[in-house]
């Protein structure tokens, strides 16, 4: 994605609008700091992140899950007792 400074964007606004309309998004920066992202209105919205629970009832978590490997972990951190 290309970045244009404000002066350059103002000078070439028509060309940049055409690029965005064709699906080429770009960033406009002020003093080198990115300020806005320009995208076409027809660009599809990004999909929502998948939420936990999409595999409900398909996997089982043992009751002692939070204690699994406890001895090995203690040995790694504290050495043999």
Topology, pairings included?
Layout: E1 2-5, H1 6-11, H2 13-21, E2 26-30, E3 33-38, H3 70-78
Parallel strand pairs: 1-2
Antiparallel strand pairs: 2-3
How would you describe the overall organization of this protein?
- With 81 residues, this protein is α+β, with helices and mostly antiparallel strands.
- The protein has a domain at 2-38: YefM-like fold, CATH 3.40.1620.
- Helices cover 30% and strands 19% of the residues.
- The protein is elongated, with a radius of gyration of 26 Å.
CATH architecture level-2 label of the domain at 2-38? 3-Layer(aba) Sandwich
Major beta-sheet overview? 3 strands, mixed
Sheet with the most strands: spatial strand order = 1-2-3
DSSP strand content: 15-25%
Q: What is the averaged pLDDT score?
A: 87
Number of strands: 3
Would you tell me the structural class of the helices and strands? alpha+beta
The number of helical runs is 3
Q: pLDDT under 50 segments (min length 5)?
A: none
CATH superfamily of the domain at 2-38: YefM-like domain
**Helix content range:** 25-40%
**CATH class assignment of the domain at 2-38:** Alpha Beta
Q: What is the ordering of alpha helices and beta strands? A: EHHEEH
Output the CATH topology of the domain at 2-38: YefM-like fold
Distance between the amino and carboxyl termini = 56 Å
What is the molecular shape? elongated
Report the radius of gyration as a whole number of Å: 26 Å
């Amino acid at each position: 994605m290309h970045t244009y400074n404000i002066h350059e964007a103002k000078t070439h606004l028509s060309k940049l609008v055409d690029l965005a309309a064709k699906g080429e998004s770009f960033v406009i920066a002020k003093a080198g700091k990115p300020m806005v992202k320009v995208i076409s209105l027809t660009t599809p919205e990004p999909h929502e992140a998948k939420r936990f629970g999409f595999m409900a009832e398909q996997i089982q978590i043992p009751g002692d899950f939070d204690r699994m490997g406890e001895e090995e972990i203690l040995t790694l951190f504290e050495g043999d007792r």
